[in-house]
Amino acid sequence: MRTLTATVGIAVAATAIAMAQGGRPASPAGTAATEVGGRYDTKAAEPSYQGGKWIEITYGRPIKRGRDLFGGAGDKYGKVVNPDAPVWRAGANNTTQLKTEVPLVINGKTVAPGTYTMFIDLKPEAWTLIVSSWKAQTRYDPKNTTEIWGAYGYTADKDVVRAPMTLSTLPFAAEQLTWAFTDMSDTGGKLTIMWDKKVASVPFKIGS
User: Fold this and answer.
1) CA–CA separation, 55 and 51 (whole Å)
2) Does residue 155 lie in a domain region?
3) Contact 98, 130 (CB under 8 A)
4) CA-to-CA distance for 137 and 98, rounded, in angstroms?
5) How far apart are CA 18 and CA 22, in angstroms?
């Protein structure tokens, strides 16, 4: 625990220094969102989307800045982005969170409406998305053992679902990590992450 506390403390301090030097966070906050289940009302003067429910991902958006993000073989793979946590937070700073107002069916399991944390288990050419019931800390507190910061202290006992990700190569390099909802329809879509030349996604369906 002492090593973990020191590691996280150094990371938080480094972020503060970066903000002080540049006047802005090194990894700005980001949001990806979609609205499902509603319909456009075209009878009003201004068409509006009515009756929709939101699905949202909130995360930190680190920038590549010339690094070899996903190099390394075997257990050294991905250590640039995830040097010392059990799994990758799939973002920066605070834990990546998934908030949904509708049930989501991922890898055959239903994720009930609510707020969850998300991680990625990084293996060479085999990424696994994790949706977890761990609560995210709003600010780093080493004494708080019921909530986590980033992926430090993550344990698998709170996993709600794990799903293999489809991993492919982008025709360009994305400088800043980006989460997105892709291939959306009334019945579902994909949770998609892009960074450098990697793009990984998991399909989901809207539950009932």
Assistant:
1) 14
2) yes
3) no
4) 14
5) 6
13 phi, psi to nearest 5 deg:
-65, -40
Q: How many domains does the chain have?
A: 1
Q: What is the pTM of this model?
A: 0.89
d(CA 145, CA 155): 12
Q: SS3 for 159?
A: strand
The CA R_g of the chain, rounded to the nearest whole Å, is 18
Range of the domain at 108: 27-41+52-206
Does any domain span residue 6? no
- Write down how long the chain is: 208
- Is residue 14 one of the residues assigned to a domain? no
Q: What is the pLDDT along the chain (208 residues), one digit of tens a residue?
A: 444 544 554 455 444 444 545 688 999 999 999 999 999 998 878 889 999 999 999 999 999 999 999 999 998 999 999 999 999 999 999 999 999 999 999 999 999 999 999 999 999 999 999 999 999 999 999 999 999 999 999 999 999 999 999 999 999 999 999 999 999 999 999 999 999 999 999 999 999 8
In what helix (H) or strand (E) does residue 97 lie, and over which residues does it extend? strand 97-100
Structure tokens at 92: 């920066």
Residue 46 falls within a domain, yes or no?
no
